[in-house]
Every structure is written in structure tokens, then in C-alpha cells.
Amino acid sequence: MPSRRPTDPSAPPRAPALAHLALPGLLIAFGLAVAGALLSGVAQAMMLAPSLLLAVPSATVALARDRELRRRPADAQLLGGAQAWASGEAVTGATDAAGWQAALECAGSDPRAAPLSAIRLDIYAPGLTGPDRDQELARLQTVATVSWREILRPADTLAQLGPSEFAVLLPRCEGTAAEMIAGRLQHAVPEAARCRAGVATSARGDAPKLAADAGKALAAASRRRDAMSDPARLATVRAIRSAVAGDRAGTRDPELDALAHSTTTLLGVDALVVTLVDDRLLHLAGAHGLAALDGHEDGLPVQLTLCRQAVAGGRPVLVSDAARHGVQDAAQAELRLGIAACASVPVKVDGVVVGTVCALRRERYEWTGDDTAVLRVAADRAERHLTATMQAAREALST
Fold this sequence. Notes:
About 45% of the residues lie in helices and about 15% in strands. The chain contains twelve helices and ten strands. The protein has a six-stranded antiparallel β-sheet with strand order 7-6-5-10-9-8. A four-stranded antiparallel β-sheet has the order 2-3-1-4, with helices on both faces. Strand 5 (about 270-275) and strand 6 (about 280-290) form a beta hairpin.
């Protein structure tokens, strides 16, 4: 099998082949010395001389090799960390707090790892009760880390910092990509659990500040009210729905239908929807493709849809295979329509998330950065249109 190690001129060189001959050299020298001890006269000198010539350089090389190995105790901890992208090694599972600190130090001292991103995650299960609660939560966390390893690259460090806190270090990952990955990690936890996330990025690879900023972001997310039931958000959604509907029945908007049509063609997906989401229902403000969607203008239960996480977290959520991400209950609406892959980007109006632009595919699909960029452009256009529509409705009411 060919090596996965990339050719990198700045990578440390491998040990020379001579280092691997040190132990055999010492053994041969010892054998010659023993044979010389059993002889006498000229024969003894002929055996002892080559044994000394072999023993001295072999011992020197062996000692040097031993010192080198003793100076590398942290390398084993970093096989899944900031140096793994250079070595091509793969790891499984989560390291501990010591491994996390070692990965931060290594990444912070290596300019090749920049830009650096960090994600802090908190897994909790509000519905768990009883004496076995802690054991069941630990099981859910184990299931989550297995799913996370399928999402993360071999180069990324996954660490458990506390009973429910986890951290991910992403070398060579800028902020937008880190937000996308955080959304996927949140969505990959089992249905019985919930996950909060805080994301931070450092263009210069300032690892200590990066870790602190990610911790602050997680703390802010923990203090934040449930975005789905936030009164200001719900009031904005109601105002937009009223403005979009006008004298028409339902919430479909011709301009948003046209936006969905053009974006569907550009991405080559099976369908694209622009949604408005309250605390209970998902409403279609614009759609194209998958005729089965046309019968759901009056709303789908938001708990059964994949786009809920994009609204709750305010970041893109990319699901390449709904059946494998541990979100079967949340994906019931999509699976019923034959949807396998879903990419949701939040739509904001007046500073709050009111819905999503969501691309849908019937087949499993790995979403790319270009796909997300196109969806962000579509979300920006939807935001401008919805903002203008709501402002026009307000002005009409004030006159």
C-alpha cells in the first residue's frame, strides 16, 4: 500500500539507515570479543581489534538514537493533532486535556498549521433521568465521538476536556469552514442528546488566545436563550410572513420562487427551498423542484426537519447522508420525500435568523465550499428581498 505521507521539504528527515544498524553492530562486536577471549596470542588480537572498531561507533549511534527518542514523548499524543496533517497518520477516539494542550503548543509553534480554528462543544441530555443518567450520558457521548471522527480529518485533534466538554483543533481551517464543521458536529450527536458549540479562529495561529476565545464562545452559547422560541425572532417571522403573503394565500413569494429556480440550476441539485421557521412549523417562502414539496405551504413540523439546527445555531449545517448522521427523527420530513443530502444556510432579517436557504439531493452527496458559497449568495439575496418586503409593508401600514 503506498504511503500517505506527503513530500514536504520542511518536514524533519527520517533517521538514517545507519541508525538501524547500531544494535546489530553491537551484537557482532560482542560476539567477536567473546571469541577473542577464548583465544590467545595473535588470534586474540585479531578478534579484539575489529570488535573495538565496531563497538565504539555502534554504541555512539545507539546512544544518539536513544536520546532522540527520549526527546519525542509528545509525538504519540499528537498523532491526531496539529502535526498529523504532515505525517498523514490517522487516529480514532478522543485524547485528554494533556493531549489537547500538547496539540495547541505544537500547532501554535508551527506556521504551516495556520490558520487555526478551535471548536468547544458541550453535550448534554435534558431528557435523561434516573440513577443510570450518568452512564447513559457517557454512552451518548461515546456514540457522538465516533460520529465526529467520521466527520473530522485525520489531522484534526479531538479531545475530551471534562465530563461533558469536548474540543476540536482544526489546523489549516478558516472561520467559515470551521462554522460549517461545528454545525455538522452538533447535528451528528444522538437524538437523545443536545450539543452547544463555540467557534474561534486565529489567522496567525495564536493557540492560547484561540482556545480562550473558543471557550468564551461556548459560554456565550450556553447562556443564550433557546433561539427557536426567542420572542423577537418569532415576532420578526410573523411580520415577514404577513408581508410576504399580502393578499395571497400561503407564504410563497414569486421572487423567492425565481431565486430557488436559478440556484437549483446553478448547483445542479434536485430541489431548493427558502423557508421561514417559527417555533413549531417550517413554511415555504420559495421553492423549486420535488413537486411533493408543493403541498406543504401550510407548514411542516420543524422538529422533523434538518434545517432546525441551522436556525437554532445560526450557522450552516451540511448533511451528506441523513440516514447515517444519527438524526433520523429530525430528518423524517426529508426522508419521507426521498431526500438523502441536505445543506442549510441561515437567513437573517433584523439581526435574527428567520429561516434558511436549503438545497436538497436525492442521493448521498459531500457538500463543498463552492456549494456553501453559492447558498450564502442565495441567502443574502433572500435576506435583502425579505427585508425590503417587510419595510414596504411597515410603510404601507404607517400611511
